[in-house]
Amino acid sequence: MQHEVHREITPLKENDCFLVFDRERRAFSFPIHFHPEYEINFIVNAKGGKRTVGDHIGIIDDKELVMVGPNIYHGWENHQNQSDHTYHEITIQFPRELFNDNLLGRNILQPIKELFTNANRGILFSQETIQKVENRIYSISRKRSFDSFLEFQSLLYDLAISRDQQLLSNISFLRKNDFHNSERIEAVYAFVKDNYHRKIKVEEAANHINMTVVSFSRLIKQRTGKSFVDFTNEIRLGYATRLLIETNKSVGEICYSCGFNNISNFNRIFKKKQGYTPSEFRQNFTGIKNVY
After folding, report:
1. Number of domains present in the structure of the chain
2. How far apart are CA 268 and CA 276, in angstroms?
3. Considering the domain boundaries, does residue 94 fall inside one?
4. Of residues 58, 82, 75, the one with CA closest to residue 291
């Protein structure tokens, strides 16, 4: 199937807080798209459908809850969903300007600030979280005016403090650096971003921010949940996925230009992360070109 990325023009007006679309369908029909607004998408009864968020591709369950940030492309397709029943979709869109930096800087809103940062990579929420918030999502759709807005704010906070959030797209797939943890981590990220195409020793990276290898490794693990090798490979994968989507370079060329030492290693790491080999991944994205 050919894919084209569309920039969606949402009906949000300058003075609107958010929009809610509540609809029942027999099939996914909207193409992969992007827009400058945040979006929360709740889907029921479409098991086997395919989710695309950034460079992530996944199969959805009976109930699906995803949040995406501004300008990350996303879409859902029927794929293996053979159900004869209609599925229910509730989509909430809101502008990034709704919560300014001064407001998000308040202590009580720190979880929501982190939620917005994570949404830049796309967030898949757990089935446990869905069970806790789905009535609130239905309520937002049914209520009107300020009552709906209060319910919406409560939903954001519930999502922000929920457990087992899965970030979907690779860090370096994003065109802008929306990865914020600490000055040191950002410095490491920038260093790896500048040198991902070659072999990087952990000693070199540690020295870059004036830390011992032991302290550096501990910092990376605490802040990212990954070893330095895995952290570096994730950044490389972000560049690799973009090259697979946006260029005609061979898998071998992309492998070596992104710093992987051999194709078999590249294929293994890529499939473990994406669920597809590089060639299969490219086929899924056939037709996508540069998105600016």
Report:
1. 2
2. 9
3. yes
4. 75
Q: How far apart are CA 40 and CA 26, in angstroms?
A: 20
Task: Indicate whether 101 and 136 sit together in one domain.
Answer: yes
Tens-binned pLDDT, residue by residue, of the chain (292 aa): 334 555 565 667 678 889 888 888 888 866 788 888 999 999 999 899 999 999 899 999 999 999 999 988 899 988 776 666 788 999 999 998 899 889 998 999 999 999 999 999 999 999 999 999 999 999 998 887 888 899 999 999 999 999 999 999 987 776 544 444 467 888 898 899 899 999 999 999 999 999 999 999 998 887 777 899 998 998 899 889 878 877 889 999 999 999 999 999 999 999 988 788 999 888 776 544 433 2
For strands 33-34 and 6-7, give the pairing: parallel
**Dihedrals φ, ψ of 40, to 5°?**
-115, 125
Check the CA dihedral 179-184-272-164 and report its sign: negative
Give the residue numbers spanning the domain of 59.
6-167
Tokens 């870059």, residue? 208
- pTM of the predicted protein model: 0.69
User: How does DSSP classify residue 262?
Assistant: -
